[in-house]
Structure formats: C-alpha cells, structure tokens
Task: inverse folding
C-alpha cells in the first residue's frame, strides 16, 4: 500500500520463561497483521492481559529477553523504502527513536527524572539526538515547541513533582514530539488521569497530529477515548486482532461477538437499562484455548470455533473480522 | 426519613511541610450528607477531591478533625469499633491487594465467621460461605484452598463482596471497586451491586471518579471538588441537568463511547493543584467560566433548588 | 520436605548445609571424648599430628582433635543462644513498634537506637571484665543477645510499617481479626525470610565476637571454645614456634563455619523472598 507507514506480518512475539524448572510460554502477540497508514490515528482496544503492551513494544523495536519475536516481521517505511526492523542495528534503532517513532508511556513520572528540572531533561534528549547544539539553542528549541503546543514555557524551570499530573503528561507528550516524529505510540497515556485532565491531554494529542500530519497509535482500554480521537480501531483479544474497522463502524455496527459485548456493555448517560457484560473471564496468555480464543465465552460458538482459528473476512474496504460466524477468512490465516 | 448513615459537618485537615514551613490542607471541608436504607449513594469526584479521605474516616481508619458520623442512631465515638460489628463492611479498589498473596483466600472467610460468631461448627460455616458465594455468582468448590494469584480480578472482587456480605451488613462502602477490573467484567460487578440493593436491601456508598457507572448504578450522588461537596441530588438531576459549573465541566469532559458525540470546544487545565486547595473563596474560581468577583473572596453557601443542593454564588 | 529439596538445588545452600552438618557432627563427637577438656596435662605436650593424636597436642597437654570438638560445640551453642534470644527480642520489638505506632513506637525505637549508638565493644568488654568468673557459655550467649537485636528490630519494624498500609490489612481488620493474630498470621510469612537470614548473620557475628573476646582473654579461659583455643595458641607462641597444627585448627574451623553460615543465609533468603514465592505459587 502506498501510504502505509508501519506494517507487521504474521507477527508472533512470545515470552519464554523458566521458573524453578517449570517453563512457561506466554503468547502475548499471536499472529498479528497490522497495516497502519500515514496521517491517521489508529486505536488498539483491549483489556489488560490481551497483549497490547507487548504489541507496542514490538512496534517500537524494544524487544528484550525474555520477550522474543518467534516469527513474522515488523516493517517501517522510511523515506519511501520499506525496512525490516530485524535488520537494523541497535545504534540505528536508537537514532530512529524520537526522530521517526516515539513512545509515550502510561506513567509520566517514569519518563521525567524527578531530580532534574524539566529543561535539563529536554536538553538531554535534544543533545543525544541532534548533537552539537549549544545550551541556549536547545533551550530555545524546547521553549518554542512548548509555545506551539499551547503549554506555558515556565514549566521548563520546574521540577516534575511541582506540576500537576495532567501537566506532567502533556510535558511528556511535548517531549515525545519534539523532533516531529512520523509515528507516535501512546501506551494508555490517559488511564491514570482524571476525566477533565484526560480531555486536555487527548485534545493535545489531536492538535499535535493535526499539526504534524503524522500517525498516532493509541492503546487504551477506554472505549470513550477511542470514540473521541481514533479514526480506525483494532480490537485485540488474547494476542490476536479480532476486528478492525473505522470508528463509526465499530461503535455503530460491531460484528465480532466480543466487540458486540464490549460496545453493548458500556454505560451511557440517559440510559439506565441493564447492561450485560461478557460472561466468563479472559484467558491466560500462557494457557490459550484451542481454535478461536474467544470460544469459551462466546454465546454463538460452533464446533469449528473450538478447533481452528478463523482468518480475516473482509466486509468492506475498511472493515475486517476474524470470526467463523461471518466467513471463512482468506487463506484460513488468522491475524 | 430514616437515615442509615449521616455525616454532619465533617472536616479533616492535614498539615504538610517541614518544621520551617507548614501549610494546612483541608482535605475535607465541612461536608454533610446522608444515606438512606436500600439506596446506592455515589460520592464522586476526581483524584484529590477528598472522597477517599472521607471513606477512611467513615470506616474508622482515619480520625476526623471535627464533625460527627451517625450510624443508625449511634453517634461515632473515637476509637470505638462499633462500625465493624455487623452494620458496615467495605470493599476496596485493588482486587489483588485485598487478599494477602501468600495466604489462601478462604482464610479470610473463616476468620470473619469465627470472629463474628456467625456459625456454630465447620459444616454450618461452609454452608454459610457457600450461600454468600452463590449470591455473587461463585461456588465454594472452585474457591477453597486457592491463592489470590489463581483468580482473575473480577473473581477476586466478587469474593471480596461475598466476604463483606457474611455479616449481613446494612451498608457497604465500596471504594472504587471497579476501576481496576477489566472492562469486560466491570458491568457484572456493577450489576451485582444493583442486585444486592434490590434483593437484599443493602445500601452502598459508591466512591468513584467514573461518572458513567455512577449514573448507571446509583440513586443519589454528591460531587466533590477539592474538599467541598458542590452538588448533591438524585442522579438524574445532577448528571443529566447539572447546575454547578464544575459538574457541568465534568459531565462535558467524559468521553462518550459514541463517535457522533465527541467533545466540542476546548478547555483549559490548571498548572498546579496545590494552588486550588489553598485559595480563599470558591476553590473553582480559577477555572470557572461564570466567575464573579464575589467568588474569589467569599466561600459560596449551600443553596437548595428543587431537592438539589448546590454550592455556588450564582444561585438563586 | 519438598521445600528442602528445592533449597538443596541451589548449590550455595547445599554446600553450606553439608558443611554445617559436618560441623554439628564434629561437635557431637565431643560426647565421646576420652579426655576431660578442663584438665591439663592429660597427654604429652606439643606432639605433632600422628596416628595416635590426630591433630597433635597442645602446650597445655590436651589432644587438639578432641579439644576442637568441644570448641566447635561450645561456639555453636553460644551462637545459637545469642541468635535465638536476640530474634525473639527483635521480632517482638519490631512488630509492636511497627504495628502500634505512636508512643509505643517512639519509646521502643528510642531504646533500640540507644543500643545501636552505645559503643558495643566497650560495653561488652566492660561487662565481661565485671563478670569474668561467671562468664560461661550461657551468660556469654545472653550478653551477646542483648546487644544483637537493635539493628534487626528496625528492619522488621520498617517491613511491618509498609505491610500495615496494604489493603489486605484492612480486609483482615474488617474480618474482625485481633491485633496479635493479624500481625502473626498476615505479616509473619513476609518476615520469615528476614528473620532467618538475620538469625544466621547474627550467629556469625556472635561467633566472631566470641573469638575476639576470647583472644583478648575476657571470658572463662578454661572453657574450650574456638576463641579460647586461639588464645592459648597465641599465648604459647605457637606461631613463632611453628606449631602450626595448634593455630590452624581453630582458624580453619572458624572459616568453615562462617562460610557455611553465609551460604545458608543467602540460599534461604533468596528462596523465601516473597516475590519469588508468589511466582512459584502462581506457576504451580
């Protein structure tokens, strides 16, 4: 595809653990195909334990033992050419971080050094990536960037603990976007924040994307945030993407039983009718059920669901589902 | 009207800082509310508003600086654990932290039964525990002898509720019970609370920052902001037709799970939270779109309009 | 016994365990000793190691091998008394101070800090000089215990302080559990590794201090311990006279005991670390 900026193909990333002689394989990312375009906000929705954080780690090329890519590949598209991440050296990956792909984690306090002022943290980042900048140049760059994003430049002189949680998170986002990366990956950036602050942070992300015309991959379990910001959403369950469509389709016409349950269980204002949540509990990634991982909880389960994982069926240009109820899927291959 | 629990003029101040510079933060500032029998009452607000401190004071884990708590006619006496005899029980936020990871879960059930003398022998004890587990959708066989790490968050939270029900309490204090539970299991726990209210007549004090579940589950609600209760009323009135500017901002900021109803307009955020605590006058004056001069100088009074109590200079 | 097998898989623990077993067996041999260790001149003096006197004899006229068995026995008994009694004091003080807080905490920690600040060695030397005649192994053990609990009490207290804030404490309180039972049942599993490793460290410290005191001549020198053997050897110029069999025996035995205790301590505390335990509980 022309404007694909990041692509994964049959990606399988497992944690291989050995605890006191018992070995355990956690299949966090189990055969995932993603095709993420430029200039879009792609949301990955799923609950805790579905593998989405691991997926983000593979996308950001941050693989460390015991996490291993067992098969499949992750490809970036840089300057028109497609590069397989596995072929890059550690130094090249380090260069790419912050310039091409940057990462906004869940807790801002883990990014900001609590004993240095914000401007020193910024300076460290700038110097390690754009080298040769003098102190005042780096400071000026940071300042102009903050002003561009609508944040008060005086935060540069503060220590992280003096700022509110929301301001810290926005400062972290400003740091991540300092060098205009093509891809921003956000791992639950608003989860620990209050509702009003969350709105401010999401607003900022939207402004950033509009200004840079880049891609944001946002992972969160909060469907409300996805509804407000994402263009396309991928629903992840037990290490696989089970449905992918535009935001309107996911909320308006969910097809996969899990997505249907998820959407229908969300409480809405003005509506006090009973909501039903998904029966059973999510499977452990170390001990996945056979066939389709959702079959133990699915109300419409068929025999074949217990034996084989369905492949993707295309319902529309932008809508695909992996479910036996809908279709066979191409090549019987899962995603 | 009968009041199961009444909080009257409760205040709690903390002093922070070192010997050289101490500041007093009023975490809970002269609040009053009541809970009726068989009612779900939500105490809602963002982090730092004082709702958790209030819960801890009611449960007896913290001492109030001033004010009283009246439970079924009995006034609270300092250090007297009249709460836990059989009237009030509590459920906490982190299902995995609620039980000691190095001990089996059933130990807490047996302890509760023994210490409150709820059954005479082991067979009766197990029968009682099984009944309560069935009320939350679990069974004794699948839970006996297992450690917390062998269950999911949703199951542990149900067990926490079952343990709380052992003493047949009239009031359950639930401190953010579903915020750490997966989205797919959340509604089942919320529905469970509703069921307990309808079938067993148990009241619930639901402390949360999630207004959507508060709306779905509660009968009445009080919104807290930086230690004050700014609006109290039925859930329909407060959340569907909010009067206080802060409630309006809160309501408008909730991300609705509907792409057709996205946020409109932009908001401004504070830089530091401590400033807001130490303000004179109305604490929300810094961000309020309807601010007037009097708001910055004088703390607003409580005004009652159509059964809703609002703390704002704008009314009447 | 599954616990034991798991522990033995760690090579450090295994080595430490077998060495300690050997030491204990060695100490038990003392019950079969043909000579009375408090007498002098029971065998010819200063004989080199031979078939008859396995480790030779010393200048006091004692068979070194059999003296060593008594020495190891007495040193281990001192260490055990010191270690166990100080554990009991440390755990009691730590748990009471940690859980109750407030005044009790302040008073107990004041006492504990005072014990830490007092120059330990001077105090022990002074007390030892005062009671030198009745300084038998039990008295010495108790004296070392009184000085050995302060540090560990603080460790246990800080652990209890953090456990007190965890939510399962609240659950236990709501379940009607009384204070004593709460602390014992809920917190002990977390404290056990700390208690064990500090016990073993304390034992090593006690033996070290005993040897020091003995070498300085401050305990009852007729009682054979590792320290007193060394005292007599130095006193009789064994090094200069190249009677290496006399000097090396207590030194090598002490080294073996210290190393074994250290490995045991490390092995147990690694195994009992609550985070590892939780992993094991879930992985099973």
Result:
């Amino acid at each position: 595809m022309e404007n694909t900026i990041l692509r994964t193909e049959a990606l399988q990333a497992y944690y291989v653990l050995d605890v006191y002689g018992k070995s355990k394989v956690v299949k966090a990312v189990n055969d995932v195909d993603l095709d993420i375009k430029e200039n879009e906000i792609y949301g990955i929705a799923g609950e805790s334990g579905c593998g989405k954080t691991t997926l983000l780690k593979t996308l950001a090329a941050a693989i460390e033992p015991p996490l291993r890519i067992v098969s499949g590949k992750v490809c970036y598209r840089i300057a028109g050419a497609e590069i397989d991440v596995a072929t890059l050296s550690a130094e090249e990956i380090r260069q790419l971080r912050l310039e091409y792909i940057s990462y906004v984690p869940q807790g801002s306090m883990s990014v900001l050094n609590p004993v240095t002022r914000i401007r020193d943290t910024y300076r460290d980042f700038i110097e390690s990536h754009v080298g040769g900048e003098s102190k005042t140049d780096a400071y000026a760059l940071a300042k102009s960037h903050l002003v561009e994003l609508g944040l008060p430049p005086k935060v540069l002189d503060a220590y992280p603990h003096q700022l509110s949680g929301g301001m810290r998170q926005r400062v972290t986002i400003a740091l991540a976007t300092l060098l205009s990366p093509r891809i921003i990956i956000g791992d639950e950036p608003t989860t620990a924040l209050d509702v009003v602050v969350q709105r401010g942070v999401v607003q900022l992300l939207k402004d950033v994307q509009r200004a840079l015309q880049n891609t944001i991959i946002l992972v969160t379990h909060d469907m409300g945030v996805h509804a407000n910001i994402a263009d396309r959403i991928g629903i992840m369950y037990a290490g696989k993407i089970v449905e992918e469509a535009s935001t309107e389709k996911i909320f308006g016409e969910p097809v996969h039983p899990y997505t249907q349950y998820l959407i229908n269980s969300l409480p809405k204002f003005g509506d006090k009718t009973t909501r039903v949540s998904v029966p059973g509990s999510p499977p452990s990634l170390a001990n996945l059920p056979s066939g389709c991982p959702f079959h133990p909880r699915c109300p419409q389960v068929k025999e074949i669901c217990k034996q084989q994982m369905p492949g993707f069926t295309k319902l529309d240009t932008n809508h695909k589902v992996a479910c036996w109820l809908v279709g066979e899927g191409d090549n019987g291959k899962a995603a | 009207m009968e009041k199961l629990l009444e909080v009257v003029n409760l205040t709690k101040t903390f002093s922070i800082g070192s010997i050289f510079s101490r500041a007093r933060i009023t975490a809970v500032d002269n609040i009053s509310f009541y809970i009726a029998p068989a009612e779900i009452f939500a105490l809602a607000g963002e982090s730092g508003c004082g709702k958790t401190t209030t819960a801890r004071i009611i449960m007896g884990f913290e001492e109030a600086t001033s004010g009283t708590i009246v439970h079924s006619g009995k006034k609270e006496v300092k250090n007297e654990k009249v709460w836990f005899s059989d009237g009030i029980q509590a459920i906490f936020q982190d299902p995995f932290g609620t039980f000691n990871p190095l001990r089996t879960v059933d130990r807490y059930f047996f302890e509760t039964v023994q210490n409150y003398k709820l059954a005479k022998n082991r067979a009766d004890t197990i029968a009682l525990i099984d009944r309560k587990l069935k009320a939350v959708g679990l069974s004794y066989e699948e839970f006996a002898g297992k450690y917390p790490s062998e269950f999911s968050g949703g199951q542990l939270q149900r067990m926490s509720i079952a343990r709380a029900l052992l003493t047949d309490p009239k009031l359950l204090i639930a401190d953010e019970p579903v915020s750490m539970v997966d989205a797919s299991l959340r509604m089942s726990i919320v529905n469970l609370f509703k069921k307990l209210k309808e079938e067993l007549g148990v009241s619930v004090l639901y402390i949360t920052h999630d207004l959507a579940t508060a709306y779905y589950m509660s009968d009445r609600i009080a919104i807290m902001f930086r230690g004050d209760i700014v609006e109290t009323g039925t859930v329909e009135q407060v959340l569907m037709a909010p009067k206080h500017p802060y409630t309006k901002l809160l309501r408008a900021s909730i991300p609705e799970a509907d792409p057709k109803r996205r946020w409109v307009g932009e908001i401004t955020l504070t830089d530091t939270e401590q400033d807001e605590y130490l303000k004179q006058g109305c604490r929300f004056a810094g961000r309020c779109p309807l601010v007037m001069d009097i708001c910055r100088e004088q703390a607003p009074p409580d005004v009652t309009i159509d059964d809703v109590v609002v703390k704002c200079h704008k009314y009447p | 016994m599954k616990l034991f097998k798991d522990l033995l898989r760690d090579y450090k623990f295994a080595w430490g365990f077998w060495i300690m077993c050997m030491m204990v067996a060695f100490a038990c041999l003392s019950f079969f000793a043909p000579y009375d260790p408090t007498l002098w001149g029971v065998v010819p003096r200063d004989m080199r190691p031979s078939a008859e006197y396995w480790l030779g004899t010393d200048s006091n006229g004692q068979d070194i091998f059999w003296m060593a068995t008594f020495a190891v026995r007495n040193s281990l008994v001192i260490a055990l008394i010191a270690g166990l009694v100080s554990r009991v004091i440390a755990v009691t003080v730590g748990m009471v101070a940690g859980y109750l807080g407030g005044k009790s905490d302040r008073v107990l920690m004041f006492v504990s800090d005072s014990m830490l600040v007092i120059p330990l060695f001077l105090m022990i030397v002074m007390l030892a000089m005062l009671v030198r005649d009745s300084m038998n192994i039990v008295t010495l053990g108790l004296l070392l215990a009184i000085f050995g609990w302060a540090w560990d009490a603080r460790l246990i207290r800080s652990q209890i302080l953090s456990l007190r804030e965890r939510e399962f404490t609240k659950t236990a309180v709501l379940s009607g559990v009384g204070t004593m039972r709460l602390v014992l049942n809920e917190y002990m599993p977390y404290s056990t590794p700390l208690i064990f490793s500090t016990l073993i460290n304390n034992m090593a410290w006690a033996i070290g201090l005993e040897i020091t005191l003995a070498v300085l001549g401050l305990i009852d020198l007729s009682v054979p311990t590792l320290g007193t053997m060394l005292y007599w050897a130095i006193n009789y110029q064994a090094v200069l006279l190249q009677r290496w069999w006399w000097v090396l025996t207590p030194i090598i035995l002490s080294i073996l005991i210290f190393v074994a205790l250290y490995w045991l301590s490390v092995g147990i505390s690694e195994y009992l670390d609550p985070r590892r335990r939780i992993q094991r509980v879930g992985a099973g």
Summary: The radius of gyration of chain A is 21 Å. Confidence is low (pLDDT under 50) at residues 331-335 of chain A.
